[in-house]
Amino acid sequence: MTNGLSGPRKQFLDVLRVLATCAVVLMHVLTGATDVTDASIVPEYRSLLLSVMDLVTWCVPIFLLISGYLFLNPERTLTYPVMIKKYCRRIALAILLFGVPYAASELVVAERTFRIRMIPEALKMTLMGHTWSHMWYLYLILFLYLITPLLKKVLRVLPVWGVVAMMAVIFLGSSVAPFLNKVLDVNSIPVLPDGGVYFLYYLCGYFFAVREVCVDKAESSGTSGKGMEAGLDTEPVRGKRIGNVWLMAAAVLMMGMILSRTLAGFSIQMAYNYPFTVLLAVLLFAAGWNGRRDGAASTAREKTHRIPWQEAGALSFAVYLVHPVYVNLLYKFVKITPFTVLEQCGVQSVAAGQVVLILLLAAFCLVVLALATATAWVLRKIPVLRKYVL
Asked: How far apart (Å, rounded) are the C-alpha atoms in residues 296 and 290?
């Protein structure tokens, strides 16, 4: 198995997939709880909740970076027939197989009955994008897949500085400008559509792929004999050290984001175009990319990791698809959320309440993650689903 590329499977991609999937589950555990809870009863926890959101919102950008890294790789040929028959078909089937039941469940809950006509109504809703909220990502990635062959042709003739300039314009227009408008409380700064930031993440993945191709070519042409042996010995260590630097930078950024919420009272909330989220996602991907262990550079110890990243990474897509089922069951049918449990705990101080709330969010996340992982494992045992969808 190769992560979508020829050559050894890249473990760092599986690590990022798994971590991002866990972050998605925690994000939806939190947002789902706030959606069904009167926010006025927990105003003292607003800064904490914003901090948690800041620490997990990098999840979807990481998925887009991975896709860009794999599909926009300049050494990979992707024609429209291959893209549509293999990759677009997979996403389209996932949208139909999961989106239609989710849309139908909303109709059943709204009318408190089931009608056979709900099935075509749910199909129509799904085709229009009106299904459960987390499915939006599948519509986005389907669009990116559809434009990928054309985009690769454009990137092939566009100079590097041109791509950099385009990315800078997107970042400034879709991320920085909206942020400044919110901070300054104005609408005078011109902005680009917020959705442009997703294209930016996709292109960021492309740059990591280009960098890797350049490094590989330089190593293959510039070393031989003892020099090559030395290169194989030192490159993984150097890459790991650089990866640690990027990881430390990400940790510093995370701490700054937390302090801005808790100490400075910064309350402006943005989605995936938050400038610091963009920076954090790129730093985390850079940390993983620089610390990667592939091919001849892998050691026996690294090939026998105690954590089965490849198996866990293979479950990530299915976990993403099914985890809201358990969030909704807990919140809307069992009527239990982290906030309801916190209220029953009867904590006497805000500080103690914050600690308890963090523990409750973690516990709910683990429960949902465990149930979703078990469901994903079962679904992948179905041959047709495993081959064509999951």
From this structure: 16
